[in-house]
């Protein structure tokens, strides 16, 4: 491991008007190491990364890179110095080939002044061999998986000889095998002597991959530890300033009548003969591996996607297929997996987002005033403890956890009887996870039927009264809470079994 830090930040500050985003950002990252950066949403991690990437300039503090005082005034300057940022969702040019994306803006030319495509392709093949990945250099970027797009961004960084790679929540949308491949690449880059910063809310990944961890809270540095010298409970205490004794605060609720009934739901090539019931007061977990068809099923139940056969009923009444408005009138609410793209109008205010689904109810003679909007939004923002200095704050500026609360507030404002929530805590911090879990438990206690889709097995085991397991578009198990274990859920997710009764 290198003795001179590649990156040093000490007491870095950044404010946006009256809002202090970073009070004392401090981190020191050595070459030949993978350094985790953890903290709740809003802790200042993203602001710190954007300063290193040249998107923001610091207001104060010390910023050193490769032993020299610096201030990157653009992303181009940061990249030229040797910094590469790999985001959760890379932005490639979809119509260009993989090779063209890697060499965009710096294509080699031959002696006639023309782009040397053969040289570009040879270099890409060499990079992919070095990273031990198989991707066709000539295929268009459009249609590539998120995992392959990230590999292309990494290959670009390696080709630029980046000395610091920052991976910002890179595994949120990846399957287990894709995560394993990404980690193998990260370890190989560390072994070459590069410095890596890994930002994640998943402690199992932090402890599996990283050498060192730095914790931030409320825009300030809390501490740095060797991974071998700390444990998850200690990181949680440092992150939230308190001890969370119960991450899954599941309260017993009285299970009542069937509210949501799905019978024989099928869509060719996607899912087949899906049948289940969710009762009043019940949290039903829908589990399975990525690609099992879970999100497709709930989108069909809500009417966003079509289905070929089957029936959806709420309180015994049929819900028309392919009609989300009818599903809403029946009392169904759907919090989608991708809150930014499907759940929010990110450039609109918090108040506007919370009232989106009830605007017809709010209107008087076809008119909605800002006062009406703010009154309705204030109640739900308060109930869900949305952390924002004003209801006219643009939703895009909120932390991931608070964005999730806004989406939840929007749907709870409709007064649903059935809440379908897809990946309720993806990409949000441990403290906010506990708050979301407590809210789901409270809603079930008030008689709501909750269908929760989650890829996090501890979340499913901790919160669900029953677990439905899907594999390749079919339900393979229906497991009561008292019988549910990691082993039998994973067995049902990976083996073709008869549905358990």
Structure description:
With 501 residues, this protein is of the alpha/beta class. The protein folds into 3 domains: 5-92 and 144-240, Rossmann fold, CATH 3.40.50.300; 251-331 and 417-501, Rossmann fold, CATH 3.40.50.300; 340-415, no CATH class. The chain is 34% helix and 25% strand. It contains 18 helices and 20 strands. The protein has helices at residues 45-52, 75-81, 98-102, 117-131, 146-159, 176-191, 203-209, 232-240, 294-302, 324-330, 339-343, 350-354, 359-362, 370-383, 400-412, 430-445, 457-463, 486-494, and strands spanning 5-16, 19-30, 33-38, 60-65, 68-69, 83-86, 164-168, 195-199, 212-217, 220-226, 258-267, 271-279, 283-288, 309-314, 317-318, 332-335, 418-422, 449-453, 466-471, 474-480. The strands form 4 sheets. Strands 6-7-8-3-9-10 form a 6-stranded mixed sheet, sandwiched between helices. Strands 16-17-18-13-19-20 form a 6-stranded mixed sheet, with helices on both faces. A 4-stranded antiparallel sheet has the order 2-1-4-5, with helices on one face. Strand 14 and strand 15 (317-318) form a beta hairpin. Helix 14 (370-383) packs across helix 15.
